[in-house]
Design brief:
By secondary structure, this protein is mainly beta. It is built from one helix and 15 strands, in the order αβββββββββββββββ. The longest helix has 29 residues. It starts with a helix and ends with a strand.
């Protein structure tokens, strides 16, 4: 009898463990507001990504970029970005920028750069948050010429859609994670251990713009305004 009770207790314990593991896996699968690792979608942006200063021009407290030069177009898209040398790292405070797009393809992204630094292994590294005029956002990591999607394009009601509307993107760093807000709504948390390079929390911040293959340069102009808050 005691041997049978012993086997029953072991069976119940195994059943409990299997149910517990299943619940944990289900909970992890339903959490959409934390990051997946950089093992997600990879995009080779060599020849289609460039840090450039002279296209971003100050205009009455804002920074404006207007692009219609076909040298910044490619069949896979082209990314232009700028870092602010005097920017305060997110480890010392929030980085908040209000962005607005007045022309260009609807789904092409524009937004902010944060944590930019030079890494001995990867070279140039940075993190980005992009929105588009369709009310969507995405989060990614650029390591030299490889872009990793950390959060795929996702629609959210708090993001204003359309042209000539303002959306405010904010990154706040605390201990081991970055909280990403759009229009004061926290939409995503990026944990430091998912960032492939060190020094992101003390890196530089800036602006970013994506030229879509659908943008007909030089006949069309892509225009975005940025204002640091």
């Amino acid at each position: 009898m005691s041997r049978n009770i012993h086997f029953i207790l072991i069976a119940l314990f195994v059943l409990f463990i299997s149910v517990f593991v299943s619940c944990v896996q289900l909970d992890n699968n339903t959490d959409t507001n934390t990051d997946s690792s950089s093992s997600g979608e990879e995009t080779d942006v060599s020849g289609g990504s460039e840090e450039i200063d002279n296209l971003f021009e100050e205009d009455g407290g804002s920074v404006i970029i207007n692009v219609n030069n076909e040298s910044y177009w490619s069949s896979k898209g082209y990314t232009l970005w700028k870092v602010l040398d005097d920017s305060m790292p997110v480890s010392d405070g929030d980085y908040s920028v209000t962005v607005s797009k007045s022309s260009g393809t609807e789904e092409a992204g524009y937004g902010i750069v944060f944590g930019q630094t030079e890494n001995a292994f990867y070279g140039n590294c940075l993190l980005v948050v992009l929105v588009n005029t369709e009310g969507e956002f995405t989060v990614g990591e650029l390591l030299n010429t490889t872009y990793y999607t950390l959060k795929s394009w996702t629609a959210n009601a708090c993001i204003k859609s359309g042209y000539n509307v303002n959306n405010t993107i904010k990154v706040s760093y605390e201990k081991n994670h970055y909280d990403i807000y759009i229009n004061d709504e926290k939409l995503y948390t990026l944990y430091s251990n998912y960032v492939n390079y060190s020094g992101a929390a003390s890196g530089k911040n800036g602006f970013i713009l994506v030229i879509s293959p659908k943008d007909d340069l030089p006949n069309d102009t892509v225009s975005v305004a940025y204002r640091v808050n």
